[in-house]
Amino acid sequence: MPDDTLIHDPNGGMPRLLEIMRRLRDPDTGCPWDIEQDFTSIAPYTIEEAYEVADAIARADWDELEGELGDLLLQTVYHTQMGAEAGHFTFDSVVKAIADKMVARHPHVFGDESRDKSAEQQTADWEEIKAAERADKAQTRTLDGVATGLPALTRAVKLQKRAARVGFDWPDTSHVIDKIIEEAGELVEARDTLSRAEVEEEFGDLLFVVANLARHLDIDPETALRATNAKFTRRFEAVEDALKAMGKTPADSDLAEMDALWDQVKAAEKLAKT
Fold first, then answer.
1. DSSP label of 30
2. Could you please report the per-residue DSSP string of 108-154?
3. Mean pLDDT of all residues in 119-125
4. Are 108 and 117 in contact (CB under 8 A)?
5. What percent helix, strand, coil does the chain show, rounded to 5?
6. Euclidean distance between CA atoms 37 and 42, whole angstroms
7. Which of 49, 78, 47, 77 is nearest to 65 (CA)?
8. What per-residue string of b and e applies to 44-64 under the rule 16 or more CB within 10 Å gives b?
9. pTM to 2 decimals?
10. How many Å apart are CA 160 and CA 170, to the nearest integer?
11. Integer Rg of the chain from CA
12. Pick from 77, 80, 128, 75: which is nearest to 104 by CA?
């Protein structure tokens, strides 16, 4: 029988969590579900947990954030356990790699460079260091290293930032807005005359330019859209509440009535702000 002393030690810290994951993945005595997983099957959970961390932060729910950070940490432990089993890396090697990277990327803190730099200069230095790291990996093209697994809007902004560093960028927002108008017109035309695949392509082009506008305005499009999603949810639920007070549901209503209630909700929100 395995020794469960560390497993049940509430003060076991990181070694306890690593041992729990090792035991869950044990091919003879572990959990059948955990044993069956691989990097690909676990990756969506990793992304989901990262978003749940961001959600807890957005709601300033610090008790929930503690639990969500634990869930996210578990994802790292999960991947490193699978990596160790396959001989790719270990938890310790992952920790060493990130620690080495942080030291190398902060010579103004851990080296001889001066800390007397602006935030802009520190950002420029950071990008130069990362570019050198990519070169060491033979990633010499401008867009190399921009992760394909990022949310599409986030990846669009990162691709555009990389291109902008080598001069491939509009000089101001007016050009971006003109391009949005152009792409919107092409989408309308595509809707009426082209195939579904071509319509989808035109829609993607429009989103890409909208992401570019966000970059020029120094707005994170993912953050902006999440806020709008929350606003839509809040307002639609207020419409539902108003209908409920009338003894109705959205299914019993129609667009004109719900639109009028929506306008009332918006007006009430604006009044509350003033």
1. S
2. HHHSSS-S---HHHHHHHHHHHHHHHHHHTT--STTTT--TTS-HHH
3. 76
4. yes
5. 75, 0, 25
6. 7
7. 49
8. eebeebeebbeebeeeeeeee
9. 0.62
10. 10
11. 25
12. 128
Length reported for the chain: 274
Residues 6 or more apart in contact with residue 202 via CB below 8 angstroms: 183, 186, 187, 190, 194
User: DSSP of 68-112, one letter per residue?
Assistant: HHHHHHHHHHHHHHHHHHHTS--HHHHHHHHHHHHHHH-HHHHSS
Predicted pLDDT of residue 214:
96
Question: 74-95 in b/e burial notation, b at 16+ Cβ within 10 A?
Answer: bbbbbbbbbbbeeeeeebeebe
Q: What residue type is 170 in one-letter code?
A: W
pLDDT the model gives residue 200 = 93
Per-residue pLDDT at 78 exceeds 80 = yes
Q: Which residue has the tokens 């108008």?
A: 181
Question: Exposure string (b/e) for 155-175, b if CB count within 10 Å is 16 or more?
Answer: ebbbbbebeeeeeebbeeeee
The angle that helices 221-245 and 255-273 make with each other, rounded to 10 degrees, is: 110
Q: How far apart are alpha carbons 27 and 77 in whole angstroms?
A: 17
If DSSP codes are grouped into helix, strand and coil, which group holds residue 8?
Answer: coil
DSSP 3-state of 202: helix
Tokens of 55: 């959600």
State how far the alpha carbon of 258 is from the alpha carbons of 45, 190, 237, in Å: 37, 31, 11
| Share above pLDDT 90 across residues of the chain, in percent, rounded to a whole number | 69
